[in-house]
Amino acid sequence: QVQLVESGGGLVQAGGSLRLSCAASGSSSSVDDMGWFRQAPGKEREFVAVMSWRDGSTFYADSVKGRFIISRDNAKNVAHLQMNSLKPEDTGVYYCHAGKDTTDYWGQGTSVTVSS
Description:
Helix content is 0%, strand content 58%. It contains no helices and eleven strands. The chain has strands at 2-7, 10-13, 18-26, 33-39, 46-52, 58-60, 68-73, 78-83, 92-100, 103-106, 110-115. 32% of the residues are buried.
């Protein structure tokens, strides 16, 4: 089992920045990847970014490429999502995700609101 706890959401003006963090506990030493998804009001959950825990490779959704950066702190089993140049369309609940073998783990979500 892997437990994920997000932090760092909040309210920011367009053009601003926020940094989300996701702390993993439990069997986190063997996760395959960690990343972020988001869900805007009235929309389906969508992929944002992911990092392989094996080799550190990253992949981003086109909508955030060049603005968001995913990173990790191996010693603390924490993943970060640095969000820059935020836009109102980035508003939503951001969920941390971890993959381990064929199992998906989710955090409880943290809210991000970008005002215009």
